[in-house]
């Protein structure tokens, strides 16, 4: 008869998991603060940040943010009402609408990134380029993308 055992987690693994949780919490806290300076929610700021990299359909935004497409539609509606985002036909498939930042939206996204000084620049700035590459590669590997 097979018995089910809980895998033993060593102290180092527990510490790494705790540190990852702390980094994630700090990232979201600082993102919310930066977003608030632009009277945006954290979710609106994250969508705007994604779109500043490349325009994309709602479905893809939802996949990247791990949420329902209907939630993304509401967020994009509010960003569009503020003149930060526009919907435009996808040149590859005119039946699909892409959400894309307006000029104001792209500028706001840059300002949001600049507002993440404490999180993005201080701790990562203390790492050498090789250390940042190693960290990136380890995170990709953990996520199955490496």
Automatic annotation (TrEMBL):
SMART domains: HTH_MARR (SM00347). PANTHER family: MARR FAMILY REGULATORY PROTEIN, TRANSCRIPTIONAL REGULATOR, MARR FAMILY. Residues 13-144 form the HTH marR-type domain. SUPFAM superfamilies: Winged helix' DNA-binding domain. Keywords: DNA-binding, Transcription, Transcription regulation. Pfam families: MarR_2 (PF12802). InterPro entries: HTH_MarR-typ, MarR/SlyA-like, Tscrpt_reg_MarR-type_CS, WH-like_DNA-bd_sf, WH_DNA-bd_sf. Gene3D superfamilies: Winged helix-like DNA-binding domain superfamily/Winged helix DNA-binding domain. This is MarR family winged helix-turn-helix transcriptional regulator.
